[in-house]
Amino acid sequence: MTKYLPFVWRNLRRNPLRSLLTGSAIMLAIALVCILRTMPVGFDRFLESLAKNSRISVHNSAGIVYGMPYAYLARVRAVPGVVDAVSWSWFGGAVDADRGVTFPSFAVDAEGVGVVFEDLGFAPEALEDFRRHRNGALIGRQTLNRYGWAVGDEITLVSMVYPLTLTFRVSGEIPSDQDPRMWFQRVYLEEAIRALGWSMDEVGMIWARVDDPEQVPAVMRQIDALFANSEAETETETEKSFFQNFFGVLEGLIAVVLMVTWLVTACIVFIAANTASMAVRERLRELAVLKAIGFHWRLLFGTLLAEATLLATVAGGVGALLSLGLTRMLATQAELDPAQMGPLAGFVVTNWMLVQALFLAFFIGILSGVVPSFGAARKSVAATLREVF
Amino acid sequence: MALPLGYPLRSLAQRRLRTGLTVAVVALVVIATTLFLGLVSSLRRTLVTTGSPDNLVVLRKGSDNDGSSAVPLEAYQTLRFFEGVARDPSGEPLASPEIVVQPFFFTEDGGRENVLVRGVDAQALAVHDEVRIAEGRMLRPSLGEAVVGRGVAGRYRGIALGREIRFGRRDWKIVGILESGGSSFESEVWVDVRDLAADTRRGSWYSGLRLKVAAGADRDALMRRIADDPRWTLAAKPEPEYYAKQAESANIFYVLVVALAVLAGVGAVFGATNTMYASVEARVAEIGTLRALGFPKRAVLQAFLVESLAIATLGLGVGVAVAVPLALAVSEALGGVGFAVSTFSTSVVTLRISAFDIAVAAGLAAAIGLVGGLAPAWRASRLLPIEALRKG
After folding, report:
1. How far, in whole angstroms, is CA B285 from its chain's centroid?
2. Is A65 on the interface with B (CB under 8 A)?
3. pLDDT at position A337, please?
4. Which contacts qualify for B304-307: CB closer than 8 Å, 24 or more apart?
5. C-alpha distances out from residue B91 to A165, B80, B81, B127, Å
6. What's the DSSP call for residue A2?
């Protein structure tokens, strides 16, 4: 087959403008498919990454904004099977009060963080620094990079929830590229709230880690039973389930994005099919001659198909690379707010997606080439020559 | 002398498959673009166009939404009598004290979402004059009654007029459905403010106030007076400004959509150019004949441009004809497209393709037709009659 490759290549170059136009169209379309797919794929990867741990979320069954008494924390810690637990309270800190909240910030209990979130892989010195400094904060890498903060920096945030402006010390990072969160010590917030003459006896949520993954369902039932028929009944679920629900509201958007992706794919097929049919039509005479002098129709079919496939695959490859560059550009758009779209706005084209895009282009090539090529290759010599002359 | 219009149009019918494929390409691009544009304009309609310019949102200074704000009871009692606040015919100030909270609601397929529940009193409909009760009636105080937004009614499980639904800590009876021309109030549930205060165990605090500014009154002076009052730390801003701020979280989508629509459009231009070149190639002899007969270059150029534009127009027609019902069907099937703004409460966006979206798509299709047809048409018009005839 390789010996016919130059033949295929020459055919492609016979009408360079057309090949270029078709190739460009396919390239753009494949790039588009790659970019669109980063959204659902990023979402799935995010949920996937949470599935591995045995962390559970305890919150008021009426809603996340309904709090629970702080005393619940000690009771959750005491449940057999729970390794440790921390409370989470929304602070709503903003770097710039006019722009509002640009990343989520929570008051947490310093002691449990390292144990409950063990899987995040905190640097020991970060946790140490966090515990030692009353105003210490652990901040997600995404947010650190965005604001150019480094360990040891002092940062000031205005709360959107309390009439407070607090200064924090960056103790270390939450080591994940896509993590926008900031955690700081609950005692620091409690102190500030007491200074206002108020008290802080509620928590928004409790995160607990269970030592044995097998035990998770039993522990969850036990915790909810503990607070049944109380002022604040709880709902306990796994971390994956929590975030699935939290970002589940975006599923409609993902559905629309996927639909558009399919439309674009169909578009590529039509563009490629159009070109293939043009290329074949022009060459009917020459194909008839080739057959008349003894070339088998299968060979002609093969070379025509190879032509469409080669064009689509090469263009698809370039398009996939193009999407890499374009997503980088999107991700670095300064005025955009990655935290707002959560895991949808990572814009990360994975290697696997590149491979898939290449295969997609390959199959589009075959799909678009097969009908016109087959028709032309199978046409009887007599019929073709009669038609042409 | 121009060529009759029938010439380019009948040429299209000559090559049905190729014309059909190119029309399909344009149509798909139009569908993809209008769907995305429709998503953006629907998002904007829901998030941005909420509120009326003579309404003020009064919140604790420094809080950016009523979910995280607290306004003391005494502030409400005082502020509503400030000069510049409108009055109803009975002399009662048009001031609406409100509490908001976001309990869980459950979608038909089991999803759990935070829905904004707004506790209101008797003045609510007079202050929020864009809101009207479309079905049933307005809630009555202290009876645990609720009025749900149109978007909420279509999205969550167990919601129907006359039914009881559980959210927060108690059951509520749904007595009406509210509409507000697609704005974000349709994603809310309204209950009595005292019922909600009891359910959320809130003391003597409201989340925020909405004031209607009297006609002819100085809105800015009223805002300044509220902000400068030393008894409380409050701030007032016009409702549209407040909602525009909330809507900023959707900005990333606008950038994305424009970028993607441009990409798709450029791709379609290449596709259309290709078809038109082929159309010229196939008709070299014909063009030569036309030129030899005395048709000027301009006539040939025009004819090919018309042909290309006709393809684009057909594509546009097919695309719009598919996209508009498709958007409605998708929206219906999904129970509205959900979107969570920075406050985490769910906005239910009804996906609808507006006239403006169609106009933009028409512009795109025209650009595809023109740009795609220009180079080939130019080339056709430049063919030398003698050579063209010989080639054919």
Report:
1. 51
2. yes
3. 57
4. B304/B8, B304/B276, B304/B279, B304/B280, B304/B373, B304/B376, B304/B377, B304/B380, B304/B381, B305/B369, B305/B370, B305/B373, B305/B374, B305/B377, B306/B5, B306/B8, B306/B9, B307/B8, B307/B9, B307/B11, B307/B12, B307/B276, B307/B279, B307/B373
5. 41, 12, 10, 14
6. G
Q: Which residues pair with B118 in a beta bridge?
A: B100, B190
Residue (of B200, B365, B360, B363) closest to B272 by Cα position: B365
**Is residue A340 scored above 60 in pLDDT?**
no
Structure tokens at A292: 């008349």
Q: Which residues contact B376 (CB under 8 A, 6 or more apart)?
A: B273, B276, B277, B279, B280, B304, B308
Query: What's the gap in Å between the CA of A16 and the closest CA on chain B?
Result: 11
Place A1 in a pLDDT band, splitting at 50, 70 and 90: low
Q: Letter for the amino acid at B190?
A: W
Please report where in the chains the tokens 């998002």 appear, as a residue.
Answer: B43
Shortest distance, CA A32 to any CA of chain B (angstroms): 7
Question: Are residues B270 and A326, on separate chains, in Cβ contact within 8 Å?
Answer: no
Q: Kind and range of the H or E element at B176?
A: strand B170-179
**B chain contacts of residue A245, beta-carbon cutoff 8 Å:** 111-113
CA-wise closest residue to B35 among A51, A128, A258, A338: A258
Query: Rounded to a whole number, what is the distance in Å from the CA of B53 to chain A's nearest CA?
Result: 20
Residue with tokens 């990867």: A45
Q: What is the ipTM, given to two decimal places?
A: 0.82
Tokens of B352: 């609808």
Cβ under 8 Å to B: A residues 322-341? 326, 330, 333, 335-338, 340-341
DSSP B87: B
User: Are A166 and A130 a contacting pair, CB within 8 Å?
Assistant: no
B344 at interface of A, judged by CB pairs closer than 8 A: yes
Question: What is the SS3 assignment for B111?
Answer: coil
The predicted-structure confidence for B47-98, as pLDDT tens digits, reads as follows 888 889 999 999 998 888 888 888 999 999 999 999 999 999 999 999 999 9
pTM: 0.85
